[in-house]
Write a structure and sequence with these properties.
Blueprint: H1 10-14, H2 18-28, H3 31-44, H4 54-77, H5 84-87, H6 89-100, H7 105-126, H8 132-144, H9 146-180, H10 187-193, E1 199-205, H11 218-236, E2 241-244, E3 248-254, H12 264-271, E4 278-284, H13 290-306, E5 312-314, H14 320-325, H15 330-337, H16 346-357, H17 362-369, H18 373-387, H19 394-410
Parallel strand pairs: 4-5
Antiparallel strand pairs: 1-3, 1-4, 2-3
Length: 415
């Protein structure tokens, strides 16, 4: 059977002395005045209450206060047959409303405690000499209800806050995916996204499924998305936003104030705690440019992987030359075909590749290839003759470096 008289010891209420009931009756006659005093004087001392609209204070808050006062009066008279769920329904509804309005939970809890304190202060002021025992009886009943009342209030507030946050997160995620497809945001959407000053997009290549594992479905993607979001919220605050599709994860990071440093490296570290992953960054000046930034990030990531770079975050600066060379046009293809004369001399091509990889260090190149340094010198001179460039000069070296990059990214021209 459900408990009655919520938060009150029913046996104790039924066993109240006549003196306690008489004191409570005098208290009950002041409920209307007590409601006004609590809703105005008591609550206005709490942070933020003085800025609340009058209609909220005089109607919604006053209604909740009056409800609590009558609830206690009925319990004292032994007339309250409601369950806790019924009695606290109004408190829960108001708590959920305060959550939607962004009212702080600690202040809401303080308001419930302040109401109880004022009820006790009035009871104490009405007590006459010789009614001390009666006053203690009523105090026991008054404060016994607090745990159940506050528990319901906090649960309702947190539940509504979680639902509201999830709804907003879902709206923001849908907006991000829309922007990635090229949608131009409205002013309202810019405000919702919270990145009117721009930010960075972090593109994450999702780890490949283990052999024999089930294909990654929508549930698994949403689970990963939630895990990443929780990590970022915990360590970076709630301004970042995660969206995951079939192949990639997208993390939007707002620009920080000057001098605070960027969030990109920290976000990359948090996401790669369990599994090293390939990532790429690019910046956007306003959310309308998000799609272009994401496309650049995809290209940066493609280049980094094509060049054999390891996991971790990659930026435009890391692949700037390769990015330039891989753009559509005649020059990239012309650079790629420049190496054709080396096709018939694989030993020379291998030595030149090693020479470039080791930053023109002939001894390091020789050691890596198992050659004598003089052999490296001879092959580099021979490569220069085949390519028609002096590879010992800055320009010749840069030409060979660019040719190898273009060859690796574009491949030799067809035909």
């Amino acid at each position: 059977m459900a408990d009655r008289s919520p938060g009150v010891d029913r046996a104790a209420a039924e066993g109240l002395s006549q003196a306690a009931r008489a004191l409570a009756h005098r208290w009950e006659s002041q409920i209307n005045e007590l409601t006004r005093r609590i809703a105005r004087q008591r609550f206005e001392a709490l942070p933020g209450f003085v800025q609340l609209p009058d209609e909220m204070v005089d109607v919604e808050i006053a209604e909740a206060v009056r409800h609590g006062l009558h609830m206690f009066a009925r319990a004292v008279r032994g007339q309250d047959a409601s369950t806790q769920a019924e009695a606290y329904r109004l408190f829960r509804r108001r708590a959920a409303q305060r959550a939607r309005e962004g009212f702080p939970l600690p202040v809401l809890v303080q308001a419930h405690l302040a109401a109880r304190a004022e009820m006790w202060a009035v009871l104490r002021g009405l007590a006459r000499p010789g009614e001390e025992a009666a006053l203690l009886e009523l105090a026991d009943l008054l404060f016994a209800a607090m745990p159940g009342e506050l528990s319901d209030v906090v649960r309702a507030y947190v539940a509504e806050q979680s639902t509201s946050a999830a709804d907003e997160r879902a709206r923001r995620r849908a907006l991000v995916l829309s922007l990635l497809s090229g949608h131009q945001p409205t002013a309202e959407e810019l405000d919702l996204l919270g990145m009117a000053r721009g930010g960075s997009v972090l593109l994450v290549r999702l780890p490949a499924a283990r052999p024999g594992a089930r294909p990654t479905g929508a549930v698994a993607r949403h689970r990963l998305e939630r895990q990443w979001q929780q990590r970022l919220d915990r360590d970076l605050g709630s301004d970042s936003l995660v969206a995951v599709d079939a192949d990639h994860g997208y993390v939007l990071l707002p620009h920080r104030a000057p001098g605070q440093g960027g969030l990109e490296d920290e976000a990359a570290r948090l996401l790669a705690q369990d599994t090293p992953m390939a990532m790429a960054f690019d910046a956007f000046d306003d959310p309308g440019a998000l799609a272009a930034a994401a496309e650049r990030a995809r290209e940066i990531l493609r280049l980094a992987l094509a060049l054999g770079r390891g996991p971790g975050p990659h930026r435009m600066a890391d692949v700037l030359l390769e990015y330039h060379l891989s753009r559509p046009g005649h020059s990239g293809g012309a650079l790629a075909v420049l190496l054709d004369p080396l096709l018939a001399h694989p030993d020379v091509a291998e030595t030149l590749r090693g020479y470039i990889d080791h930053q023109q260090d002939r001894r390091a190149t020789a050691e890596a290839l198992g050659l004598h340094p003089n052999t490296v010198d001879n092959r580099i001179r021979r490569a220069g003759r085949l390519l028609g460039a002096d590879l010992t000069t800055p320009r010749g070296y840069a030409l060979a470096l660019s040719a190898f990059a273009a060859r690796g990214l574009l491949g030799p021209p067809a035909g």
